[in-house]
Amino acid sequence: MALLVLTISVAYIDLGPYNVIIALVIAAIKASLVAYFFMHIRTSSRLTWTVAIGGFFWLFILFSLTFSDFLSRPIY
To answer: N or C: which end of the chain has fewer CB within 10 A?
Structure first.
């Protein structure tokens, strides 16, 4: 619930270009907590841990490629 309140609070604060970055960090933390507790990764085997970490790594690659494309475009 605290992360939900934090997400809503950040949405109303003007942080310029950092709004998206902070929102994605909060979303990643919430997704990690959901995977860790509700998907029972904390009690799973090492293979499940490896697949979950690989999924987050792949998500990081996709976000970094998207942001590199977004940041390389000129602002009009």
So the answer is: C
